[in-house]
Write a structure and sequence with these properties.
The structure holds 2 protein chains of 2 kinds.
Chain A lengths: L4 H20 L7 H6 L6 H12 L2 H14 L9 H20 L4 H8 L2 H34 L3 H10 L2 H36 L7 H10 L10 E2 L2 E2 L7 H18 L1 H7 L5 H35 L8 H9 L3 H31 L2 H32 L11 H9 L4 H36 L6 H29 L1 H27 L5 H21 L5 H18 L5 H7 L9
Antiparallel strand pairs in A: 1-2
Chain B lengths: L14 H26 L1
Classes of the chains: A mainly alpha, B mainly alpha.
Chain lengths: 583, 41
């Protein structure tokens, strides 16, 4: 992949622009409210962009087009539960968090239950968030290493370290304002990439034809039901039901109980602006994600008329071509290209038939395309097997590399640099609020809460900055650790969120709506629910989205069952109105 | 759990109307995506 001096210039200039803008926006009061919550003065549009920037990591932009390329558009259903979750967050979570003026979501749990529930939940958040932030650093670094040959450690340090300059100095305010600028740059660059993919299609093939080509190849599967001849497939990852129900519980837990998100909407200048930011996120998220996935369809259509790489990960392709399996790989690649040419002929015929509205021609070429598509897919599987033989540590999955390979092979100089820059920006957009929230939990849920003597606002502020730096370093170390342990750990950590989110959400739902349950009951119920979730996960009977539902429902049911065995006094104390001043 | 806040609700009169707006919009998107799937299949 060619990275020209112009690309370097665009990359460095874009990153520098963000860092300087972050420093410029770093003015905040020297106290914890200013540092962690921007003095609760943010307007709704900054809150909305901050929420969106926090949710979308670099992997979102790297993987989504590749996901559509390989598996079709059905991934968009994963987001169907999000708008509904936004409503519940607005109705149940926001008013309570705002009224109690909490700094962290877990602070409320102490007021409703007890200190151990607060600390355990906060600790679980810190564990899972720091691991997933490590992954947010290492995942794009691995892709850049593979495509551009960049050193992993140095990329990690840049990916996780540069943003510390403005995150540490400016806190939540700098994080929110830089996310605003990052959002504009990211979507402008993605739009440019989509336009370029359409521009490169042959004469006579426009957007409509590209969508038809994707559709006839089974990629326009936006809505799927998950039902097969054997009934509902619980292991099917993305369908309308897992998206609506599983996605609802996952996003409700994420937006309602994950401090990296709670910390964003608590910065709003009023309860109404928090709600507006969240609701508008619910309005725009699905169409935006649909648009990003559509880029994958355009890239798919582009590759139907151009030489398609048999495997998109450049480093692994080079490795297979240079080792003892080189001959085998080259033969398989050759065969794949022959099949691709046959497929291109069928697609050209199909496009002409579509334009002429010739139904007989459409049916004929569609049948041909089906056959070629199956043969090409089979051949690509053979190529993946050889890749795995050549490198036993390989995951044999190149979905994350499709978009960047397209970028590197086709986009003009300058635009390549901009796309690499948005990988950094998207990574920073999710890492910066994560570090801010990790620091706020450490400071508010542990340091300040357990401190025997009250601290001055300036001392609290200084400690908050120190914790931001410490978490930045910890997450970079975690990223390096994840890299050294290989892909299996990365996959495990990606699922980690769904293992904990359900029970944490269950604790909050009990806190809001089951007043007769006290601290001890909910604590033991959450521990048991975690065992249930882990058991279901290891039995592999459902896809990961359903784990969120199981965890949350298990906590509610188990806490109701355990409560009668707990002391009455505990319930009375716990169920008292939560009017304790925020600490 | 009511929307007990001191701000004016933007665009609509009540937050409840905002929630219905989000739900209806989601339903419309799902219908549109379904038609999209059928049309390009």
């Amino acid at each position: 992949m060619n990275f020209s001096p112009l690309d370097w210039f665009v990359l460095v200039a874009t990153l520098l622009c963000i860092i300087l803008y972050g420093i410029y926006k770093s003015r905040s009061s020297k106290n914890v409210e200013g540092y962690f919550l921007s003095n609760r003065q943010m307007p709704w549009w900054v809150v909305m962009l901050s929420i969106m920037g926090t949710q979308a990591s670099a992997v979102t932009f790297l993987t989504a087009p590749g996901q559509a390329y390989t598996d079709g558009m059905r991934f968009v259903q994963y987001y169907f539960g999000l708008p509904l979750a936004m409503i519940v967050v607005c109705v149940a979570f926001v008013p309570i968090f705002r009224r109690l003026k909490v700094y962290t979501a877990y602070e409320y749990l102490e007021q409703r239950f007890d200190i151990k529930t607060r600390m355990i939940t906060s600790l679980l958040f810190m564990l899972s968030r720091s691991l997933s932030t490590g992954i947010s650093i290492i995942a794009p670094a691995l892709v850049l290493h593979s495509m551009l040959g960049w050193d992993i450690t140095i990329t990690n340090i840049f990916m996780g370290g540069l943003l510390l300059i403005y995150t540490t100095s400016g806190g939540a305010r700098a994080v929110a304002y830089t996310q605003q600028l990052q959002f504009v740059i990211i979507y402008a660059a993605m739009f440019a990439a989509a336009w370029w993919a359409i521009h490169l299609l042959p004469d006579g093939i426009g957007v409509a034809e590209a969508l038809h080509i994707g559709g006839k190849s089974g990629k326009m599967n936006v809505i799927t039901t998950g039902f097969t001849d054997q009934g509902f497939d619980w292991k099917d990852r993305f369908n309308i039901w897992s998206g609506l129900i599983g996605g609802f519980f996952l996003t409700l837990s994420y937006f309602g109980t994950d401090q990296s998100q709670v910390g964003r909407y608590l910065t709003a200048r009023s309860e109404g602006e928090s709600k507006l930011g969240l609701l508008l996120n619910g309005v725009v998220k699905v169409p935006l994600q649909f648009g990003i996935l559509l880029i994958g369809i355009f890239i798919f259509s582009f590759y139907q008329f151009h030489k398609t790489p048999a495997y998109f990960n450049l480093a692994e392709e080079r490795n297979a071509k240079s080792g003892k399996y080189a001959k085998l790989y080259n033969e398989a690649e050759q065969q794949y290209h022959v099949l691709q040419e046959q497929k291109a002929t069928a697609i050209t015929g199909l496009a002409a038939a579509l334009k002429a509205e010739d139904q007989a021609g459409i049916d004929k070429y569609r049948q041909e395309l089906d056959l070629h598509e199956k043969a090409a897919r089979h051949q690509r599987d053979s190529v993946k097997s050889i890749i795995k033989l050549a490198n036993p540590g390989s995951e044999g999955n190149d979905t994350n590399y499709i978009f960047l390979r397209f970028v590197g092979d086709t986009l003009p100089n300058g635009l390549v640099g901009l796309i690499i820059a948005i990988i950094f920006l998207a990574a920073w957009g999710s890492i910066a609020p994560a570090l801010n929230s990790l620091a706020s939990c450490t400071m508010m849920d542990f340091h300040k809460r357990l401190s025997p003597q009250p601290m001055t606002p300036l001392i609290e502020y200084k400690w908050s900055k120190r914790y931001t730096v410490i978490w930045g370093i910890v997450c970079i170390i975690m990223a390096q650790f994840a890299y050294n342990l290989g892909n299996s750990l990365i996959e495990a950590v990606n699922i980690l969120g769904s293992l904990f989110y359900g029970p944490i959400l269950g604790i909050f739902l009990v806190a809001f709506w089951v007043k007769r349950v006290g601290g001890h009951a909910v604590f033991f119920a959450a521990a048991l629910a975690e065992v249930v979730v882990l058991t279901v996960y290891f039995m592999k009977i459902v896809s990961f989205l359903w784990l969120n539902v199981i965890g949350a429902v298990a906590v509610i049911l188990l806490s109701l069952m355990i409560q009668p065995f707990c002391k009455r006094a505990t319930v009375a104390a716990s169920a008292a109105p939560a009017e304790v001043p925020a600490k | 759990m009511s929307a007990n806040n001191d701000d004016k609700v933007p665009v609509f009169r009540q937050w409840r109307q905002w929630y219905w707006f989000v739900i209806v919009l989601l339903a419309l998107q799902v219908i549109l995506f379904y038609l999209f799937t059928k049309h390009y299949a």
